[in-house]
Amino acid sequence: MARTTPMRLVELMVLKQDISSVIEFLGKKGNFQFQSRYTSTASDVENSKRSNPDGEVFLRLQQAKTFLNPDNSVNIKFDDAFYNNATKPTSADRENADKFLAEIDSLRAKENELSEELKRVKNACDEAHSFANLKVPFDDLDHVSFLSLRVGRIDPALLDDLRFSVGDRAVIISLSDENGDRSKILAASSKKARFSLDSELKKFGFVNMEIPKDFKGVPEDVLQTLDKQLEDTKKAFALVEEEKKNLAKTHAELFKKLLASFSIGSQIIEKQNSLESTNLVYRMTGWIPESDTHPMMKELGDLTEGRIAIRVYEPHEVPSVIRGVEKVPVKLKHGKVVSAFERMIFSYGSPLYGTVDPTPFVAIFFTVLFGIMFGDLGQGLVFLLAGILMSKKVIKVGGWNKFAPIFMCIGISSSIMGFFEGEFFANTEVLLPVSGAIKRLFGITDPEALREPLFSLEFWAAENPIVPIFTIFGITIGLGFVINSIGLIINFYNNLLKKDVGSAFFGKIGLSGMLFFWYVVFFAIRIAAFGHSPAVYDWVIIGITLFCSAFGEPFERLLDGKRPVIENGIGALLIGGVVELIEVISTYLSNSISFVRVGAFALAHAVLGYIISSMVAIAPAAGAVVIAIVGNAIVIVLEGMIVAIQVIRLQYYEFFSKFFNETGSEFKPFAFSYK
Predict the structure, then answer these.
(1) Which letter, b or e, does each residue of 79-118 get, where b requires 16 or more Cβ atoms within 10 Å of its Cβ?
(2) Under 8 Å between Cβ of 184 and 152
(3) Do the Cβ atoms of 9 and 286 come closer than 8 Å?
């Protein structure tokens, strides 16, 4: 049987001058898992406080990306290939990043200044216009408006200083006349800020101008000046926005390169800060697949020109593994198709290191069970086509693209079952000519037989319709027997590999439980199919295997060398054995009956197809097409999901429960990822 990939622990002693290059090499390779630290030390706390200059630059670049391209109108994204080809930042990259970020900071400051100016001018303009037609003396406006206006004179040389001093508390507008006199100004602020405004104006020698007592409303030249300043500020702000887009377009490639490089550089420094080190040497330990050990160590030697010390350990030589503190990480190695099913394994739990790899069995069982429950040639071809398009990246559904081989597998199995059952998009007539032609090749000429699909139990034509239905259930229970048996064999083999002999031979899922299960099944078949009568030896074999399954704990302890053999006394042993006896019988019974759902879903799928085809037959032409499309789409999506869930459930609760009594640790190598 296939087993998990052999692993080795590697210890590296790296000089300070080579550490970043070595970490970059390991991150690019993506097959080195740093060994976990089981205790926290003072140095760990100190290391976490170390600076990460590349991380700071990367953060600023990300913020700059959001600033320059908030609507994603410019393509600054890159694919995995671009990122994988990137390297840690060079001196030229750092120089380019400094210049680029300085330019963006200047542009950001300019935008912020104009944004505040636009806000102030707009507020002042809105307030002034709201009182433009108010026919009351101008002097009275200060008593009824939310806007405080001050018109007067100031030394033009102090105008810029006044604007800087009042900041965002007021708007200062020059009221220069046709003679070029720039001494007249209008100061506007909110009502609550008028005292602060008066104080600032006084400091700069502001002199109020006399407004005629009979003057009504807001002066027209004030309104025009405010409107012009608002328009000029809007134009200036729009120019900055255009400048941002142009900068994003012209520097898109540089932006991508810097983002990728500083992302990698940030992760290198982060990992470097977490390592044990002296002033000159860094120490790192990690797990690596055995097959990659020698080539990688040679590459590391070439990379550092021999300035590296390497030690390789087998798992049984690692102290933390011996003490049981650490589990050797588990890596599964498969082809492209089977590897797509690995996530079903790891979502349940990782196998123990050195035990049987169940992924090939999962791939076969999932494909077969799905096909039985979802037999339709047309609908299966839809799954197959979806899988092909996902594998070619024509259809992109995020992380689901890696499951394209699964869609292709279930598409093929569903198509095969659908062909034998004669279903094509819920239609049972389309494939009859094909199945008839195949039957004629084998010499079948009976008209009734030619009107049936290749594989048909003739549900409705049978004299007793219950018989074929129970035949389907019997076939699926038989399939469940095979799946349960393989799970028990894997468990027996795993326990022998772990030298857990007691658990291998005794207990509910040990050899004794397996023999009990097998003998009862063959005993039942012998009676039902061949009419044999139970014999004494049948009850003896069933009794012995059942006893060893239910009361196997002392035998397990005896074989494993554990003492005392009866740990908690005879009374506890008897009570526990009786409970275990009931559990053994109920578990194997429920594990077998559970596979009836496979037949039930196969029948349900056929019934849904019959309903769709019946509705299509009675509907007018246009309506028939709509019903056929919508009905098949609903079946493909909803029933496809339900069937997939049921198949996964059968594997988790019936198959995995036989041998997944202890989980390992998944191999998660260090690799660069853009965040």
Answers:
(1) eeeebeebebbeeebbebbeebbeebeebbeebeebeebb
(2) yes
(3) yes
Residues 292, 33: Cα–Cα separation, whole Å = 13
- Which band of pLDDT confidence, cut at 50, 70 and 90, is reported for residue 437? confident
SS3 labels along 247-310: HHHHCHHHHHHHHHHHHHHHHHHHHHHCCEECCCEEEEEEEEEHHHHHHHHHHHHHHCCCCEEE
| SS3 (DSSP) at 208 | strand
In the structure encoding, which two tokens stand for residue 576, read together?
A: 């526990």
pLDDT for the residue 136? 47
The arithmetic mean of pLDDT across residues 184-200, rounded, is: 80
Cβ–Cβ contacts within 10 Å for residue 415, how many?
Answer: 23
What tens digit of pLDDT does each residue of 30-61 get?
A: 999 999 765 545 555 566 567 899 999 999 99
Where b means 16+ CB within 10 Å and e means fewer, 533-553 reads eeeeebeebbeebbebbbbbb
Taking the C-alpha atoms of residue 609 and residue 595, their distance in angstroms, rounded to an integer, is: 22
Question: Tell me, what's the pLDDT at 75?
Answer: 78
What tens digit of pLDDT does each residue of 618-628 get?
888 888 999 99
Cβ–Cβ < 8 Å for 454, 487: no
Outline where DSSP puts E strands in 95-219: 147-153, 170-174, 184-190, 207-208
Going from the C-alpha of 333 to that of each of 7, 113, 158, 289, 339, the distances in angstroms are: 12, 58, 77, 10, 7
Could you give the 3-state DSSP secondary structure of residue 378?
helix
Location of structure tokens 């008066």: 198
pLDDT in tens, 547-590: 999 998 888 888 888 888 887 888 888 888 899 999 999 999 99
User: What is the distance, to the nearest Å, from the Cα of residue 65 to the centroid of all Cα atoms in its chain?
Assistant: 24
How distant, in Å, are the alpha carbons of 21, 203, 297, 338, 379 from that of 306? Answer: 13, 73, 10, 39, 60
Q: What is the DSSP letter of 37?
A: P
d(CA 56, CA 53): 5
Look up the pTM and report it: 0.76
Measured CA to CA, the distance from residue 21 to residue 528 in angstroms comes to 71
Of 332, 326, 257, 284, the residue nearest 87 (C-alpha): 257
Nearest to 171 by CA among 150, 156, 144: 150
Query: What residues contact 43, with CB distance under 8 A and at least 6 apart?
Result: 276
How many Å apart are CA 334 and CA 131, to the nearest integer?
A: 79
For residue 143, give both structure tokens.
């008593």
